[in-house]
Amino acid sequence: MKLAAICEFLESLAPTATAEDWDNVGLLVGQPDADVTRVMTCLTVTPASAAEAIARGADLIVTHHPMPFRPLKRITTADTVGRLLWELIGNRIAIYSAHTAWDSAVTGINQQLAESYGLTEIQPLLPSSDATLSPGSGRWGQLAAPMTLEWVLSITRNFANMERLQYVGDPQRVVSRIGVACGSASSFAEPARRVGCDVLITGEASFHACLECEASGIALVLPGHYASERFAMESLAERLSQGLSGVDTWASEREADPLRWF
Ligand SMILES: [Zn+2]
User: Fold this and answer.
1) What is the 185 CA–ligand 1 centroid distance (Å)?
2) Cα 229 to ligand 1 centre (Å)
3) CA pseudo-torsion sign 118, 10, 46, 2
4) For residue 151, what pLDDT is reported?
5) Mind listing the pLDDT tens digit for each residue in 110-151?
6) pLDDT of residue 134
7) Cα(195) to centroid of ligand 1, in Å?
8) How far away, in angstroms, is 103 Cα from ligand 1 center?
9) Cα of 19 to ligand 1 centre, how many Å?
10) How many whole angstroms from 165 Cα to the centroid of ligand 1?
């Protein structure tokens, strides 16, 4: 398939016009009329995921986090971004990112996260101004029956396949309305509190954001940035396999969370 046709398919899943203003999305590296037969999805282009893409003959990386993200004045091997771009371009590997457009998309990361808790009446935390393109960012919804925060913690731990996770709040607190915002999104705590959420699930939050949530009375569940988003790279790879004929797609097997527990 031509790269341009794959970009069109990705655009239909996550319209790039719905990305946040500061974001850098769409086709970031590549030649639209190139032929693509092998596609790897990953959360981030790292030395490990780039090496895997090269070793397994990928023609395209669909990365959640954009690469490049900030404007570049040079591409040399003197820094990590330059070195990875140099290697990928040298191997004729294109790079596409949907990032915040995929976070917010109708079937994107936050919708998938909300559904994993069995929420009903799922709505965006920040509705978009043009609902024909995207519902908006973050999600909130209602549990079928009130549960404890401890229950939310155990569901999150199972979903993220982790032994431990951080949280703010009383584990015995009863919760019925849940907000979700993948990645580093504690800024959604206030909109979540305003619509009556008892808890916000996001990847990570700063110490001061945690204190603010504790003071304002909304619980936080923090499985980590990686765990809050990486699962959606597997589901994206499946969607690409189903939607694109003659293209082999897989989610990176070598990338991993850089944070470890001791
Ligand atoms: Zn992220």
Assistant:
1) 9
2) 6
3) positive
4) 97
5) 999 999 999 999 999 999 888 787 899 999 999 999 999 999
6) 82
7) 24
8) 9
9) 13
10) 17
Q: Does domain 3-99 have CATH number 3.40.1390.30?
A: yes
pLDDT single digits (tens) 49-62: 999 999 999 999 99
Is residue 181 within 8 A of residue 188, CB to CB? The reply is yes
* Ligand 1 center–CA 44 separation, angstroms: 9
In 3D, which of 142, 138, 162, 144 has the Cα closest to residue 222?
A: 162
Mean pLDDT over residues 10-24, rounded? Answer: 95
Specify the domain boundaries for CATH 3.40.1390.30 within the chain.
3-99, 106-227
Report CA(109)–ligand 1 centroid distance (Å).
10
Q: How far is the CA of 235 from the centre of ligand 1 (A)?
A: 16
- At the topology level of CATH, where does 106-227 sit? 3.40.1390
Residue type at 167 in one-letter notation = Y
pLDDT tens-digit series, residues 63-104: 999 999 999 999 999 999 999 999 999 999 999 999 999 999
Rounded mean pLDDT of 162-187? 96
Ligand 1 centroid from CA 184, angstroms: 7
The predicted pLDDT at position 129 comes to 83
Count Cβ atoms below 10 Å from residue 17 Cβ, excluding itself.
11
Going from the Cα of 145 to the center of ligand 1, the distance in angstroms, rounded, reads: 30
State the DSSP string of 13-69: HS-GGGS-TT---EEEES-TTSB--EEEEESS--HHHHHHHHHTT-SEEEESS-SS-
